[in-house]
Amino acid sequence: MMKALHTKRLWPWLLLSLWPLSVCGWNKPTHMAIGAIAYRDLQVKSPRKLARLVALLRQHPDTKTRWAATLRDSTLSEDDKNRYLFMLAARWPDDIKEPNNPYDHPTWHYINYVYNPAMGMARTDTTLATGENILQAFEQNRQLLKSDAPDSMKAVALCWLLHLAGDVHMPLHTAALISPQFPAGDQGGNLFKIKVSMSNPTRNLHALWDGMLLSTDRFDAADQLARQLEQAYPRRKAPRRRKPDIDAWSVESFELARRLSYREGSLLAGTGDNGVVLPADYLPTMRPVAEQRVALAGHRLANGLWFDLKKKGWFGLRG
C-alpha cells in the first residue's frame, strides 16, 4: 500500500533540487491547441465573456511587440485573430523564459509529488524551497484577475491561467521519481533517458511527453489538433465540475505519472547518452492518454474561466 506523506515528515534532501530552473510542460504547439479548445468552448458558452477576455488580452504588455504581427495579419479573419491571440497567450509563459524577464517564474510550472516505488511512497504534498509551485501560482493569478489591478496585469494573469491549466494536466509536471538511480530526483523525467527505438537518438522522458502530439507551432496545425481533440473528446463528456480545482487535476496527473508514465517503477531509464529503448507498446498506449489530458485541460480551463466570470467583480459581467 503506497503512503501519502506531508512536507514536515520528508527528509530535507527531498526538497532540494528536484527540478531544474527551466522546464516545459507540453510543448508550445500543444499549449496553443489547449488555448484553441478553451476559446471555442467559451465561444459556445458565452460569446460576450469571451469577447471581454480577448479585449483584456489586447491590453497585454506584449501586444505591440511579440504579438503585433499576428494582430496585423490580413490573411486571418477577425475570429481567427482572436483565437490565435488566445493560443499565443497560452504559450506565452514558455516564450518568456529569457534572462532577466520580470514575468518569468520558473517554479510556477510544476509541483513535486514524490514517487519512490522502492520505499512504497506514492504521493506527498511539497512546497519547494525554490519558490511557489503551480497550485499556488494558479490561485494567485485567479485572485489577480478578480482584483482591481490594471488590465495589463490582469492580461498577464490570464496568460498564466491559460498556461498553467495546461501544465498541470501533463503527468510529469507533478512527479519527482526518487530511486537508487535518481536519489535526488529525476527532475520530472528530465534525467530519465530513453530511446523510442534502437536507431533513435537518446532523449529524456519529459521531452517525449512534451512533444508527443505536435511538433510545429503553425497556427493552422495547432488549431487542427485542437479540432481533432474536440471531436474525439467533446466538451459534453468532460467532468462537470465548474469551479477550477487545480489540486484535483494535479493529483490525477500524478497518478497517471505513477501508473503509466513510469509504469509503477518498472520503466527502465538510461543516463547520459545511453537511453534505454522504450517498450514497443509505450507510445501507442501513452498517446491517447496525452490526447485526453490536453482536451481536458482546454475544457476545464473554459469551464473555470466561465465559472469565475459569473462571480461579481469580474469586469461587471454576470450570467
TrEMBL record:
Keyword Transmembrane helix in record: no
Pfam family, one: S1-P1_nuclease
Keywords: Disulfide bond, Endonuclease, Glycoprotein, Hydrolase, Metal-binding, Nuclease
Signal recorded as keyword: no
Superkingdom of origin: Bacteria
Protein name: S1/P1 nuclease
Native species: Larkinella insperata
